[in-house]
Amino acid sequence: MKLITGSLIATALTGWAASLAADAKAGGCDALVGAWEYQQPTPPGNFVIARQGAKYIGVFFLTRGGPSPPRAEPSTDAEKAAAYARSSAGSWEFTCEGSAGKLRTKTKMLYSLNFAEVGTEQLVDIEVQGDQVKWWHLGEDGKRGSLNAARRLR
Questions:
Q1: What are phi and psi of 8, to 5 degrees?
Q2: Which domains does the chain have, with CATH numbers?
Q3: Closest by alpha carbon to 150, among 53, 17, 4, 51?
Q4: Residue pLDDT, tens place only, 1-53
Q5: Element (H, E) at 109
């Protein structure tokens, strides 16, 4: 597997999402459909969400800082560990309920570079305001974790 830089993935995701993008005025969970760019305090990256029947699916890529990943496939375990520590990618599916910009999703990780996350499920509180979205993963006690944020790409 060759590593691809964040800008290439962002370009691919944005192009793919152009045909999926929802009207920014869409209500409820459909307001999440489209291409997004992570904002502070979330590490840099992008994600795309599409609706598929009653569920939503998404793919994401983010970097965690440090030098750019190598252009060639890492060949040693140490090179792979260093490359994957700087980035993350995956896909998830979720169900969603709510309205008026206050949403709750039940998310299931379908694929992740961190294989331990595959198959895990989590509740997420989401607030949508126009082209801005904020979300918090909920702990087992129901309390919100760290704030995450993104803006819609046009």
A1: -65, -45
A2: 6-152 (2.40.128)
A3: 17
A4: 434 444 444 444 444 444 444 444 456 899 999 999 999 988 889 999 999 99
A5: strand 102-112
